[in-house]
Structures are given as structure tokens and as C-alpha cells.
Amino acid sequence: TARNAVKLASDMQAEDIVLLDIRQLCSFAAFFVICSAPTARQITAICEDLDEALSASDVSLHHREGSSDSGWVLLDFGDLVVHVFSPERRRFYALEELWGAAPTLLRVQ
Fold first, then answer.
1. Residues linked to residue 18 through DSSP beta bridges, in sequence order
2. How far does CA 85 lie from the centroid of its chain?
3. How confident is the model over 47-81, as pLDDT tens digits?
4. What distances in angstroms separate CA 59 from CA 3, 50, 77, 81, 85, one per listed residue?
5. What value does the mean pLDDT of the chain take?
6. Quick one: DSSP state of residue 103?
7. pLDDT at position 32, please?
8. What are the residues whose beta carbons fall under 8 Å from the beta carbon of 75, sequence distance 6 or more?
């Protein structure tokens, strides 16, 4: 599921996609996918496509936070949490640094 989300985000032209294994660091999820998109419209498209494609694979969206206009959308699929950022918000929140102890399983630039 996590690698599928990375592929889908890549197909949608998301930028700097990172897959982190957070299983040893927290109990609420197993993987983070973090990616960027330069416009609010592209953030929306990536989120809608991820939701649609993963739902078709019987992976349901449990919760969604944020908005494209805010520059950060979080999609909670249970064991998988996807963060879609604008480049500015991604630098500001620096999740890769915050979760720096998590192994990076995959990076697509």
C-alpha cells in the first residue's frame, strides 16, 4: 500500500517523494509518505487520485486534515499516512527532520 501510494504520487507529478518506516517510532501508523506539489490545484489532484486509487484497492481513507490552500493535506489510511505539502510548508514543518530516526525506504526526486 505504501509503495503503491509512492507510485501514484509519482504518476501525478508529485515532487521529492519520501517513504518513511515509522513502525518502531510510533503506534498510530506504520509508514509516512511525504511529498510536495507546487500548486494548490496539484495538491488537490494528488489527494483525490490517492484516495480514489487506494479506495479501489480496499484501503479506505479514515481521516483527512488540512486543505490545498493551506499548503498541507494529511490523508490517514490507517497504517499509512500521506502528507502532501507545498514546498514552503514542507520546509516549515520539516517532517523528515522531526522523524529523522525513521528509516527512509524510498525516495523519488
1. 34, 107
2. 8
3. 999 999 999 999 999 999 999 999 999 999 999 99
4. 13, 10, 7, 12, 22
5. 96
6. P
7. 98
8. 47, 50, 51, 61, 64, 81, 82, 83, 84
